[in-house]
Amino acid sequence: MARILIADSQDEDRKLLVQALSYESHLEVVDTLEEGSELVSLVGPLNVDLVILDQELPGPNPHDLVGRLRRQYRHIGIIITGSAPAIGDLRAAMQAGADDYLPKPFDPPAVSDSVEVVLRRVEDRRHEAISADAGSGPHAAKVIAVYSPQGGVGKSMLACNLAVVLARESGRPTVLVDLNLQFGDADLMLNVTPERTIAAIIQRMNQLDGDLMESFLTLHEASGLKMLAAPARPEYADTITVFVVEKVLQVLRERYTYIIIDTPSFLQDTTLTALDHSDEIVLLTALDLLALHNTKTALAMMQKLRYGTDKVKLVLNRSNADVGISPDDVEHTLEYEISAYIPSDGRVAVTSVNEGEPFVLSQPKTQIAQAIRRIAYQVMGREDDYLDEVPEGPVGPAHRGGGGFLRDMFRR
Fold it and tell me: How much is the pTM?
């Protein structure tokens, strides 16, 4: 399903475009705008594939908007519209980065033809990016392990939604590895049915390469994310050894730019292997005494393993919960800086799990979805692009506290 955003100052023209596109079942108009001030900030959260933009749109200069969109979202499709275009208008639109120009008044068949041509170009760009990454070698890859020593704090939820955002908004090949070998549930969260799991790799270890690996992966069609599922039955977990994990990550690095690992909470050899081979560890905790106690222990272990602050990023989930512990308490207690905050939104999170649709797709404008988008942009090294969209950032500490009580208690 291609997602389209229409920005046009004229109500009649917006309605004509919506009607012209409504006859195609694979097209979805996700929003319409009558001025351009919010345009760039909505493209990411709404997971837009194509923007149809009136060159007379009020607000920022439309050609400047095209340039910003092209720089920030390299693979997106952009169609400029206008009345009686002059040669200079056409040239300016193309130089800014537009894919096509549609004259007004709109002819519905011409609208459909233009959209189809541009969407094919979008797909070509994505395939070219995948091919370029596949040939760029293992140094282009980044492995991110999502870990929490405490169960029930939203680790798998974060891993799945983070992976979906990276797949959708980076334009780079992205894969999610479910390393919860006994009770992995990433397939349920993504509503996919894997034909093969990581357990099936064992019989083909000697032949495993990039092409063969693809046969073990499951596609999440809504985002383009690939997933390596956990074993279907808990007893298969013991067959996954350190060697298997190392080989899987080695092969995935050859073809994928972002490799997200959903790790189990309990530490075992395969978990430590995943952490060792990760470029970045997203360490998730919550405003919960037991979670903080276990996180402090995990941080001590990681320091002994010489994982630096550039590798271990502390993320606070349910950061706005009013439970008598503040984010300042967390930082004082753990003696570690919080890198990102995820607010509590049980309704959105639970509905997302029950329906098998990541909330970064189903509820992209919510604060919880925006918080995970920000983490994704940190992973991509593009946080400034995110801050350009949301200058204040969607989520911060709920309230600040002293931290003395917790700090003293943890010293006992």
Answer: 0.75
Check for a shared fold between 2-133 and 137-410: yes
Element housing 284 (H / E): strand 280-286
CA–CA dist 43, 69 (Å, integer): 8
Which pLDDT score is estimated for 257?
Answer: 94
| Torsion sign over Cα 181, 295, 353, 45 | negative
CA distance 42 to 35: 12
Cα(263)–Cα(146) distance, rounded to whole angstroms?
6
Phi, psi of 96 (to 5 degrees): -70, -25
**pLDDT (tens digit, 9 = 90+) per residue, 157-171?**
999 999 999 998 887
| Conformational region of residue 306, where left means phi above 0, alpha means psi within -120 to 50, and beta covers everything else | left
For residue 312, what are its two tokens? 């271990």
Domain residue spans of the chain: 2-133, 137-410
CB 390 within 8 A of CB 377: no
Residue from 279, 306, 332 nearest 146 by CA: 279
Tokens of 316: 């606070």
CA–CA separation, 148 and 267 (whole Å): 10
Q: What is the percent of the chain where pLDDT is above 90?
A: 54
Nearest Cα to Cα of residue 69 among 169, 166, 162 = 169
Query: CATH top-level class for 2-133?
Result: alpha beta
What string of DSSP letters covers 317-357? Answer: ESTT--SS--HHHHHHHHTS-EEEEE---HHHHHHHHHHT-
CATH homologous superfamily of 137-410 equals P-loop containing nucleotide triphosphate hydrolases (3.40.50.300)
